[in-house]
Amino acid sequence: MASTLLNREIFLAPLAEFKPCQYVVALSAGVDSVVLLHALKQQLTPEDPPLQAIHINHGLQKDAHLWAQFCQALCQAWQIPLKIISLEMNQGQTENLEAKARALRYQALFSELKPQGILLTAHHEDDQAETMLLQLLRGAGPKGLAAMPLIQPYSEGRAHYRPLLTKSRSEILSYAKAYALKFIDDPSNAELQFDRNYLRHAVLPLLQQRWPAYAKSIARSAHLSAELCTWAKPYFEKIWQDCAHCYDEKKNRYYLDRRQLRQYTAYEISEIIRYEFERQQAPLPHFQLMQRILNMVYNDKLDSKALVQSQNHQLRVYRDRLYLLANTEVQPRQGIFFWDLSERFHLPDSKLYLEARTIIGQGIRLSTKPCEIRFRVHGERFHPAGRQGSHPLKKLFQEWDIPPWQRGQWPLIYQEGKLLAIPNIAYSAMALVGPEEPGMVFSLVEGEEV
C-alpha cells in the first residue's frame, strides 16, 4: 500500500546509533524528493526532531526560479520550514557539469546541517542500480561498486541518510499517484549527453526487457560490496592510524609517512590512500589516478613540485611525507589584516586560527598598536632568537621543514613594519622579553569557526 512506503520503525532503525536534532530533506521539486518529504510528514510525530527542507537552485535551467517557487508553496501548504539556496555556476561549462553541480549542492546542504543533524535524500533502488553500473563502467573496485550507502556518518554526529534506497521508482510513482502529489519534471533528465540519463533511457530499458528485476539484483550486489568494505575497513583503519598516519602539531598538518607505507602491499597502500581521501571527504581516486599515486609512494626521485590532482584536492610529496590538500590550501595568501589580539583571528578559507596569550618570560614585547598579519611575498628577512643576524625567510622556511606550498600561506606577525613572530616557529631576537617580563606568545591552531 502507498501509505506504507516509509514505515516509521524501519525508518528509525538505521538511526539507532545517532541522536538526531533535525531532519533536513533535500527538496528538488521532483517526484522523489516530494514523495520523501510527504512520507516523512506522515510518519513523524511532534516528539520527533523537527523536519525542514532545503532547496538548491543551481540556476542552470531557465525555469529554475519556478521550481523554487513550487517548493516554497508546497512547504508553506504542508507547514514545513524551507530554506532556498542559490548557487553560482558557470553557465557555459559543460565538462563534468553533473559532478561539479553535485559537489556544490552537497557542500551547500552540509553547511546548513547542525551537529547531530540528519540530511535525507530521496535516492531509490533504481538510482542505486544506475550508480553501480556507472562505477562498473569506470572500472571501480569494491568501494566504488558499493555505490551509495544507506547511511553515511560525518563529523559532529551528522549523517547522510537515504531512507528510500530499497524502494523502486515504480513504488515512488505509485505513492505520488495515490496521494495526488504534484511535482516538477526536470527537463534535463531527458538530455542524453549526461551519462546517467543515457544509461537510464537508452540502456536500462533493454536490460529490463530481459531481466525485469535487474535493479533489485544490482542493488543487492552493491549491498554485498558494501558489506565487504565494512568488514575490511577496521583492518585498513588500524594500519592508517598506527603506522602511516601522522600529525605535525607545529605545522597543523596531517600527512602519510611514505617510508611506513612501503611496508605494505600495493593493494594495502591503495586502501590506506582511499581511507585518507574518505577522511577528508574528497572524491575517491579512480584506477589511473591511484596508479599515479602509487608511483608517488615508490619513486624517490620526485621533488616537492610533484603532485597528483584529483578534482578539488591534490596529493603532494615532501621529504617522504604525503599530503592530501584541498586546492585552497596551496594558493598563496594575500593581503594585510589588522589584529588587536583581543580575540582569535580566523585565517580566511581555512580551519586555522591565530591565538595570542601573555606568558611571563616567554614571547615578545609589543607596543599598544595593533599587530598586522601579513604573508610572504619575496625578499623578507628575519632574525630569529638563538641565531646570529638576519636570514632570508625563504632559507629559514627550508630549515624549519615547511613544505613549499605552506610558505605562502603561513601568517607573519608584524608591528610598526617589523617582522616579530612566525607563529608556532620563531620569535624575533630583537623583541624577546626577559625572564620576569610578560611576553606575547602566538599560536596557529586548527578549530571550528565560532
Structure description:
With 450 residues, this protein is of the alpha+beta class. It has three domains: 2-210, HUPs (Rossmann fold, 3-Layer(aba) Sandwich), CATH 3.40.50; 227-329, Uridine Diphospho-n-acetylenolpyruvylglucosamine Reductase, domain 3 (2-Layer Sandwich); 337-446, no CATH class. The protein contains 14 helices and 21 strands. Strands 3-2-1-4-6-5 form a six-stranded mixed beta sheet, sandwiched between helices. Helix 2 packs across helix 7 (169-178), helix 5 (125-137) crosses helix 9 and helix 9 crosses helix 11 (266-279). The protein is globular and about 80 Å long.
Q: Which superfamily, in CATH terms, is the homologous superfamily of the largest domain?
A: HUPs
Q: Could you tell me the mean pLDDT?
A: 86
Beta-strand share of residues? 15-25%
Percent range of helical residues: 25-40%
Helix run count: 14
C-alpha termini separation: 47 Å
Q: Assign the structural class, choosing from mainly alpha, mainly beta, alpha/beta, alpha+beta, or little secondary structure.
A: alpha+beta
Q: Biggest sheet, strands in spatial order?
A: 3-2-1-4-6-5
CATH top-level class of the largest domain:
Alpha Beta
CATH architecture of the largest domain: 3-Layer(aba) Sandwich
The radius of gyration is 26 Å
Low-confidence stretches: none
What's the total count of β strands?
21
Short account of what is shown:
It is built from 14 helices and 21 strands.
